[in-house]
Design the sequence.
């Protein structure tokens, strides 16, 4: 019996043999799915870009871009990497399946395709995609909320995006894992999401905060962690959200952590956070030049606030980026 929701699911079939396409289209269409058929890997990638595709069936041996190559392309792009990919092949060697798995394939089907096996695997992978879609939607809600908070103060416009990008770049420089860099990206965007509970008269106050107002403000990292903790995908980001206002001498908040007890992700975020705050306009001052910013931050390192080794890496990163941009500009002028 066809699933009542199948008509909303579109499956892409890529196979250079018309007979195979017709067979799969008949089996899947009979089960209630919408089916798009193409005959090569490049057409498959084009179809995924131009249409909403929920699952891809890729023949391994196709002219031009093979199924393996198309799979690598799909799994290397953030916007398509969560689409399930099933390799459909007449190859029976273990090495071929290992190669497919290394390319990112989610499952395999052997030719000739068995109808029951085909439908069972498709249904299972689409069920998993439902969960990942829900997760992605939940993340997008958090990102939207974080940007809404940022938008309340035009002086902080773009801060979350810059913090995420700079932190990931610093993570790449430190040769951190892909998982840690993704955690930095997520934490950078939502690090101040807990400010949703801070009243606007405190959040936007141009002058110094009173002790009572500071007590409220200091709770925003705890609230931010609590908001994001239900999502397992934010598990590695949570220490950055909670601890990005700690200082190495223990004078930070909310937990007064000292030294290397402050998680690395938080130390990266706080280094970039301070740099971005000093290099952008604020109600009480204009953006400071880079030399002045690094001078101020080095003095704060001597006070025991920030991680000096991370500041060294950030300064090198900023200087290299500036030299690269200067070189690009000179080439354009030439």
Sequence:
């Amino acid at each position: 019996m066809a699933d009542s929701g199948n008509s909303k699911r579109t499956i892409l079939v890529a196979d250079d043999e018309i007979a195979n396409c017709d067979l799969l289209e008949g089996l899947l269409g009979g089960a209630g799915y919408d089916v798009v058929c193409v005959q090569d890997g490049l057409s498959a990638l084009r179809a995924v870009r131009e249409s909403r595709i929920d699952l891809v069936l890729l023949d391994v041996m196709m002219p031009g871009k093979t199924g393996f190559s198309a799979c690598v392309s799909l799994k290397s792009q953030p916007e398509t990497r969560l689409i399930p990919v099933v390799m459909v092949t007449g190859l029976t060697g273990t090495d071929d399946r290992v190669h497919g798995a290394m390319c990112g394939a989610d499952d395999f089907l052997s030719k000739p395709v068995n109808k029951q096996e085909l439908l069972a695997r498709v249904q299972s992978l689409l069920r998993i995609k439902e969960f990942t879609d829900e997760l992605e939607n939940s993340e997008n809600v958090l990102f939207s909320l974080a940007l809404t908070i940022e938008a309340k103060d035009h002086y902080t416009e773009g801060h979350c995006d810059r913090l995420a990008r700079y932190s990931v770049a610093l993570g790449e420089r430190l040769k951190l894992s892909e998982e840690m860099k993704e955690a930095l990206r997520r934490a950078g965007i939502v690090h101040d999401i807990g400010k949703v509970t801070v009243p606007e008269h405190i959040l936007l106050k141009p002058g110094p905060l009173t002790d009572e107002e500071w007590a409220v403000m200091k709770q925003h990292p705890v609230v931010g962690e609590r908001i994001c903790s239900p999502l397992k995908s934010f598990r590695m980001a949570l220490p950055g959200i909670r601890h990005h206002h700690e200082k190495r001498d223990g004078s930070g908040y909310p937990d007064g952590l000292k030294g290397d007890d402050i998680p690395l992700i938080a130390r990266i975020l706080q280094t970039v956070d301070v740099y971005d705050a000093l290099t952008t306009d604020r109600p009480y001052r204009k953006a400071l030049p880079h030399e002045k910013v690094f001078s101020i931050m080095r003095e704060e390192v001597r006070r025991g606030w920030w991680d000096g080794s991370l500041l060294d890496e950030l300064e090198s990163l900023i200087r290299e980026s500036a030299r690269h941009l200067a070189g690009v500009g000179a080439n354009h002028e030439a």
In short: The two ends are 68 Å apart (CA to CA). The longest strand covers residues 10-14. The domain at 6-132 is CATH 3.40.50.2300 (Rossmann fold).
